[in-house]
Write a structure and sequence with these properties.
The chain is α/β, with parallel strands linked by helices. The chain is 31% helix and 13% strand. The chain is globular, with a radius of gyration of 14 Å. The structure holds zinc ion (ZN).
Length: 103
């Protein structure tokens, strides 16, 4: 058996992902929901500001800059969270903003 990390496509609820997403930056993490910064992404289960429980985790970097090794490292650190691509979240968020403007 040879287990490796793959980026997989899965249909999920955007509201759920965006409300419970922890973004990993250079040194610390931030809450995608309320934009609180300086969160310890290695151990925080809840946002200290808005108290949302984290279910998803993402690197802020573009997917091209994130290696599967880096994803593996993050998943090993936070097996309780599901890794998602930040680019996907951004793309949907931007699409929703545009839709709202032209409504
Ligand atoms: Zn928050």
């Amino acid at each position: 058996m040879a287990n490796y990390y793959f980026r997989v496509g899965r249909e999920m609820d955007y509201d759920d992902v965006s409300k419970h997403l922890l973004i990993v930056g250079e040194l610390s993490g931030d809450c995608f929901s309320c934009r609180e910064v300086g969160i310890n992404y290695s151990r925080e289960k809840y946002c200290p500001q808005c108290k949302t429980d984290f279910k998803y985790i993402s690197y802020r970097k573009s997917s091209g800059a994130v290696t599967t090794g880096a994803i593996a490292k993050l998943c090993a650190k936070r097996p309780d969270l599901v890794y998602v691509e930040y680019g996907d979240v951004k793309e949907i968020a931007d699409h929703m903003k545009v839709k709202k403007i032209f409504k």
